[in-house]
């Protein structure tokens, strides 16, 4: 049996991030006309909260500033100082939010028209922000942990690829399923290089109840796409392993998804994962997440023979 070894790093850039999302930026799409404004709703749903709040905050201040300029130019706001941008700005904020304190009020036709238009803009903005906020909050988010590395080691006399998955929420996820795909670079007989995706069959690809941990196993037999692969050939072949997790969360009553990607430098050959499940004094099962990502090297043949 070979000594424990880590796959040498590959010089090829990875296609997927560690969490399985594609490593492709908009500026990488050469020749494709794409504008954020053409798909602004998707951009707001996918963007981080701080980005969305910054956009809405900037839009709110800009709208109030524009209407404040209109009120300053037209006048017609009772109890507002003539030419005061501050009074016009605060009156605009009260109108946009339909507050109406009663201290300042429109008294000319131009001011009434501007206030009517601003009130309509405020209602549309409130409806849009409420919809975006609800859509972002209602998106199901899986609390699934993947091991930082995957291992390749003999199991029942057969080389086996394995990685570990755990449910961070420890709630009931039914109909859990794992799909593992090998992404590798191949060359046709004409010399054309392309990326090919091949499914890796797991010993158990579905689980009726995903509560504790799940050790995913892919036996590398004669039918496996990884048959005969070595640490060196894995790196030279620019291979990448993509994992997709799906399951039905009973609490959220929605399907949840999680992804993970492993490249050459994240494989441990002739290693196995440390046990993380232990029995408590009352017979209950406990998960030691501190050891979730830890692996241990298997003994070599000379060490195994010396130990009897």
Descriptive notes:
The protein is α+β, with helices and mostly antiparallel strands and 308 residues long. The protein folds into 2 domains: 36-137, Helix Hairpins; 142-306, G protein-activated inward rectifier potassium channel 1 (Immunoglobulin-like). 28% of the residues lie in helices and 31% in strands. The chain has 6 helices and 17 strands. It has helices spanning 40-46, 49-74, 85-96, 109-137, 231-236, 301-306; strands at 5-6, 77-78, 105-106, 144-146, 150-155, 158-167, 173-187, 193-200, 206-210, 213-219, 240-249, 254-262, 267-269, 271-273, 277-279, 285-287, 295-297. Strands 1, 4, 5, 6, 10 and 13 form a 6-stranded mixed β-sheet that branches. Strands 7, 8, 9, 11 and 12 form a 5-stranded antiparallel β-sheet that branches.
The percentage helix is 25-40%
Morphology call: elongated
Number of domains: 2
**CATH homologous superfamily classification of the largest domain:** G protein-activated inward rectifier potassium channel 1
CATH topology of the largest domain: Immunoglobulin-like
Number of helices: 6
**N- to C-terminal separation?**
16 Å
Question: What is the chains' assembly state?
Answer: single chain
Tell me the name of the CATH class of the largest domain.
Answer: Mainly Beta
The count of DSSP E runs of length 2 or more, i.e. the number of strands, is 17
The SSE string, one letter per element, is: EHHEHEHEEEEEEEHEEEEEEEH
Low-confidence regions? 302-308
Rg, rounded, reads: 29 Å
Report the sheet with the most strands, covering strand number, pairing sense and barrel closure: 6 strands, mixed
- Which structural class should the secondary elements be placed in? alpha+beta
Q: What is the mean pLDDT?
A: 84
Reported CATH architecture of the largest domain: Sandwich
Per DSSP, what share of the residues sits in E-state strands of 2 or more residues?
25-35%
């Amino acid at each position: 049996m070979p000594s424990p070894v880590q796959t040498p790093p590959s010089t090829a850039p990875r296609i997927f991030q560690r969490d399985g999302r594609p490593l492709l930026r908009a500026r990488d799409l050469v020749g494709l006309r794409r504008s954020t404004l053409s798909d602004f709703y998707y951009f707001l749903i996918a963007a981080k909260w701080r980005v969305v709040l910054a956009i809405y905050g900037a839009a709110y201040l800009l709208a109030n500033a524009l209407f404040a300029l209109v009120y300053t130019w037209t006048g017609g706001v009772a109890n507002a100082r003539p030419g005061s941008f501050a009074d016009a700005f605060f009156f605009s904020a009260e109108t946009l939010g339909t507050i109406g304190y009663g201290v300042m009020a429109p008294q000319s036709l131009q001011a009434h028209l501007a206030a009517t238009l601003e009130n309509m803009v405020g209602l549309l903005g409130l409806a849009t922000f409420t919809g975006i906020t609800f859509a972002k909050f209602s998106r199901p988010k899986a609390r699934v942990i993947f091991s930082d590395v995957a291992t390749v080691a003999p199991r029942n006399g057969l080389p086996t690829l394995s990685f570990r998955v755990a449910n961070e929420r420890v709630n009931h996820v039914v109909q859990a399923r794992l799909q593992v795909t090998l992404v590798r670079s191949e060359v046709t007989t004409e010399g054309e290089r392309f990326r090919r995706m091949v499914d890796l069959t797991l010993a158990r690809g579905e689980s009726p109840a995903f509560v504790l941990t799940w050790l995913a196993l892919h036996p590398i037999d004669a039918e496996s796409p990884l048959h005969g692969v070595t640490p060196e050939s894995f790196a030279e072949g620019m291979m990448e392993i993509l994992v997709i997790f799906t399951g039905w969360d009973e609490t959220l009553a929605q399907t949840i998804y999680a992804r993970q990607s492993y490249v050459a430098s994240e494989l441990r050959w002739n290693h196995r994962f440390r046990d993380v499940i232990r029995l408590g004094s009352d017979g209950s099962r406990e998960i030691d997440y501190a050891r979730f990502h830890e692996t241990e090297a298997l003994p070599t043949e000379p060490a195994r023979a010396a130990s009897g």
